[in-house]
Amino acid sequence: MTDSEVIVVGGGPAGSTCAWKLKQNNIETIILDKKTFPGHKVCAGWITPKVLKDIDLKIENYPHSILTFKKLHFSFKGKKFAPRTCQYSIRRSEFDHWLLERAGVPVHQHTVNNIRKENGFFIIDELFRCKYLVGAGGTHCPVYRTFFQEISPRVKEQQITALGEEFLYDYQDKNCYLWFYDNDLPGYSWYVPKGNGYLNIGIGGKLAALKKKGETILDHWNYFVKKLESLSLVNNHSFGPQGYNYYLRQNVNVAESDHALITGDAAGLATLDMGEGIGPAVESGILAAKAIINGSRHSLKSVTRHSYIRILMPWLKW
Q1: Is position 201 within any domain?
Q2: Which of 86, 155, 269, 318 is deepest in the core (most CB within 10 A)?
Q3: Predicted TM-score (pTM) of this structure
Q4: Helices (H), the chain
């Protein structure tokens, strides 16, 4: 059996950032993830200046592609505006792998099936044992499912269903576009250029609201790709989107249970206005690490709830 003071389940931004902070404080930590890195992920990959500050990253030191947007082009039911800002796009396959490697802790490829508590230790599949357990495995995190599903249930009305695709494309328009409530979608769609000639497009909306109207996210995807073609943003491309679900910010009353902690999408922390997930994931990973380091309670109350104010005022010292 492999023993460690802390085991982090999930090697995405929340888990790798938590492990990075723990390693800095000489706390023995390992990460378990069912996937290998680098791996393809269709997330829009939008990050804010606060994310860079939280992970202590200067753009010139990042070894992969990163684009800077001085404007974001918004459309709210056809009304357009483009506030000046400073935001960034990364490819999740590169960013997540870099964060994981920088954490500098052992990573085991393992799908967690069973977790039990015995004599003050968590036992995972009779293979791994730890004193502290961090759930950073996304929406379907086994740590959340085992220890938090009943005591901190998610609000179904906050569930987002999304379709996205990232592909090489000789895009001519280098701007970032976001369309809110287009075609009466209870959400928004996006066009996000990436470095090295990649383009990310996607669409997300509240699942409960879609079901109430008798619609699916695929219905809106079909409308969206026709819009991209009509705007000459994407032409002559055979679309093949991937689906995923996550939750907007919940009132997470319980983020810790007897040395088990949850972070990121496992807790349902995407911002209420933009569905931004990377920033809250990083923040919550740091908070979990601090709670373990200091022997204090893990709370998610301070995690960012809204993104838009950071778009308008990106240079504030948050």
Answers
A1: no
A2: 269
A3: 0.95
A4: 13-24, 49-54, 92-103, 142-147, 207-212, 217-230, 264-267, 278-294, 308-312
Q: CA separation (Å) from 180 to 75, 159, 269?
A: 6, 17, 20
Beta strand residue intervals within the chain, DSSP E: 2-9, 29-33, 46-47, 66-71, 73-76, 79-81, 84-90, 107-109, 115-118, 121-124, 128-135, 159-168, 177-180, 187-193, 198-206, 242-247, 256-257, 260-262
Does residue 49 lie within any of the structural domains? no
Residue 235 vs residues 162, 225, 230, 239: alpha-carbon distances, Å: 22, 9, 9, 10
Across residues 108-136, what is the average pLDDT? Answer: 97
How many angstroms separate the Cα of 105 from the Cα of each of 24, 124, 143, 211?
Answer: 10, 18, 20, 43
Is residue 33 within 8 A of residue 160, CB to CB? The reply is no
Tell me the average pLDDT across 93-102: 97
- Helical pair 278-294 and 13-24, crossing angle rounded to 10 deg: 30
Q: What is the pLDDT of residues 264-304, one digit of tens each?
A: 999 999 999 999 999 999 999 999 999 999 999 999 999 99
Q: How many angstroms separate the CA atoms of 280 and 300, rounded?
A: 9
Domain holding 273, by residue range, is 2-44+91-155+247-312
| Residue 139 burial (C-beta neighbours within 10 Å; 0-12, 13-18, 19+) | middle
Q: What is the pLDDT of residues 146-170, one digit of tens each?
A: 999 999 999 999 999 999 999 999 9
In a domain, 68, yes or no: no
Write the pLDDT tens digit of every residue in 19-58: 999 999 999 999 999 998 888 888 889 999 999 999 999 9
Q: What is the CATH number of the domain that holds 16?
A: 3.50.50.60
Q: Is residue 168 part of a domain?
A: no
Whether residue 309 is predicted with pLDDT greater than 80 in this model: the reply is no
Dihedral, 165, 48, 269, 128 alpha carbons, nearest 10: 80
Domain count, the chain: 1
